[in-house]
Amino acid sequence: MRQYAGFGTASDTNARFRSLLAAGQTGLSVAFDLPTQMGYDSDHPAAAGEVGKVGVAIDSLEDMRLLLDGIPLGEVSTSMTINATAPSLLVCYQLVAEEQGVPAGSIRGTVQNDILKEYVARGTYIYPPQPSMRIVTDLFSYCAKQLPDWNTISVSGYHMREAGATAAQEVGFTLANALAYVAAARQAGLDVNQFAPRISFFWNAHRNLLEEVAKFRAARRLWARLMRERVGATHPEAWKMRFHVQTAGSSLTAQDPELNIVRTTLEALAAVLGGTQSLHTNAHDEALGLPSEDAARTALRTQQIIAYESGVTAQPDPLGGAAYIEGMTDQIETQAMTLITHVDRLGGAVAAVEAGFMQSQIEEAAYAFAKAVEDGSAVVVGQNRFVVGETPVPTPLRPDPAQEQAQISRLAALRQRRDQRQVQARLGEVAQAASGGGNLLYPIKEAHRALATVGEVAETLRGVFGTYHPRA
After folding, report:
1. Where are the beta strands (DSSP E) in 347-396?
2. Could you tell me which of 264, 173, 259, 151 has the C-alpha nearest to residue 212?
3. Cβ contacts of 284 within 8 Å, gap of 6 or more
4. What is the dotted CATH code of the domain comprising 118-386?
């Protein structure tokens, strides 16, 4: 069970972490604000008005210390939703764990680190695809040596589904991306039987319960087959698909928001019936803004009721063998494999992304669904059918605007008291590694130990790799 905590300042999110642990949470997830994701410090002009809005602002190792203050990092598993700046956030987490005296083998968690889907569906990329893939594989290599129990990538179909992908597109494009990461890691000299068991997946649980169950089953079966037959992995652990599921934010409605509790419950149930190992349930007021404390607690209790009261966890594949489910599983697997084959013909996932193939396919599917909602053939209860007029709308949670200035002031104080010459020397080592062939994680870790900021490291890499601008 996981629940996200992350908006405003690091100290605010630390308080939410503590409350979630007290409520019985067994794992923590943190999302970072857009400036952090895009490699901008909170005082950068591009960050104005966005600090702490959709996640927690982390500018430096000091912010990570505040975020994790009092959290026993040797006892919890933390999932971090971060991609382009994943190396910075990972090594800052590691540095705090080391300060707590946690052995490297006891540092557990997941970093999303799935840059390809950013070009397809989310947009929080910084560098062009090729150097971005190098950063991904450098993180693989680093964790293989330094953090053996860390999950080095969460290959994400979730965001593609949120952008409008069908179930088959979510599976096909996600596995195509995963194959590209496997190929890049092997090219970097990593043993597939060693690194593949640290790959995890992140799926969306959407509206159609039975289709979603079949989707998860098809994804698991297809990945095992691809790893055995195409990649040639020989260890059974390398064939397994370990995955996290989050319920669909795009299925939530601002009209009658309490109905979203029912939607989320059905989506969560689909994830459990489909074999998920980790689950996040959205709060019912997230169509309006950041989740309130009460709504987040209801979302967590939804998971707990399914886990402890429903009885559906007694068997790992309770719907297996049902004719309808088996037929739909076969259908989704076939459709997904057709898409993977098309991506192969384009030269692989990186080439398909650069050509805009995945993006255009998802856009067409999103348009078709929007038309179906508009003409009523896709029913959304309370929105285009069974509408009862005005209903009370809860007041959405809004971060305190003063938090942004407080974050900027704290960052200014950090810049004043740190050793500037040491920071510049460490950033020079990052640039040297980026220009050469060294693993970037080691100099990035030392730069953050010296209190270089996330934005300064990202800007150093921009100077070597450039900035990506997609085709029109």
Report:
1. none
2. 264
3. 252, 257, 258, 259, 260, 261, 264, 295, 298, 299
4. 3.20.20.240
Start-end of H helices in 192-322: 192-195, 209-225, 260-273, 293-308
- The SS3 assignment for 80 reads strand
Q: How far apart are CA 271 and CA 211, in angstroms?
A: 11
What does the pLDDT profile of the chain (472 residues) look like in tens digits? 554 555 567 777 777 777 767 766 667 888 899 999 999 999 999 999 999 888 899 999 999 999 999 888 998 889 899 999 999 999 999 999 999 999 999 999 999 999 999 999 999 999 999 999 999 999 999 999 999 999 999 999 999 999 999 999 999 999 999 999 999 999 989 999 999 998 999 999 999 999 999 999 999 999 999 999 999 999 999 999 999 999 999 999 999 999 999 999 999 999 999 999 989 999 999 998 878 889 988 999 999 999 999 999 999 899 999 999 999 999 999 999 999 999 999 999 999 999 999 999 999 999 999 999 999 999 999 999 999 877 777 777 677 788 899 999 999 999 999 999 999 999 999 999 999 989 999 999 999 999 999 999 999 999 999 999 987 6
| Tokens found for residue 60 | 């430096």
Token digits for 379?
Answer: 């029913």
Question: Can you give the pTM of this predicted structure?
Answer: 0.92
Q: Which residue has the tokens 């050469």?
A: 436
Q: Give me the residue spans of the domains in the chain.
A: 118-386
Instruction: Measure the CA–CA gap between 267 and 211, rounded to whole angstroms.
Output: 11
